[in-house]
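Incident log entry.

Two folding requests arrived from the same account within the same minute. Monitoring flagged them as a possible duplicate submission, but the sequences differ. Recording both here for audit purposes.

Request one:
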Amino acid sequence: MSKKLELHIGELRCDVPGCGYQTDYAETWETIADCIGRPCPKCGASLLTAEDYATMMMLYGVSMCSGDAPEHAERVTGTIEMNGTGEAVITPTFGPGQ
């Protein structure tokens, strides 16, 4: 059975306008703390700020407390975008026919 809310980490993206750097791999919850302050190989800015990390961990804590979803529950996916300030913009992505 799956959780009502599951979070998975994707690739890290540089927040500097015009930089466009993005990692070609996904981090894990076990390794993400090691990314705080990691410099962007293209422009040198931080790929993960302490503020964004704190927001990620808060969202992760919420997901861990969400309980189990009913077996035939409708699944909705989405993205969470951050910009280095700790602010998160959540955009749902609905499946076919939604």
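Request two (distinct sequence, not a duplicate):
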Amino acid sequence: MEGLVLKKNGNFTRPVRILISLMGIALCALGLRFDVYLLALAGIVVGAIGMYASKASTVGIKPFCEKKQLIERGKGVSAECLLTKIVDERG
């Protein structure tokens, strides 16, 4: 038994994407219910990450790929790992 798999092929697995999205919605709702706007903002950010991962999975890109998976093609980098390349160059 391998255990819980969080990432597969450069993206979160479906249950993890759903869990992240639902956690974001719940945090946002709780923050708005109890007038804790910082919690609502955190919920929006967490939910956005979950929705971003879902959209990326639908389109077929891999926004959370490992650094070793970068594929250099001539001048640029494959679209699958573009986000990782941009973050590495800035940080």
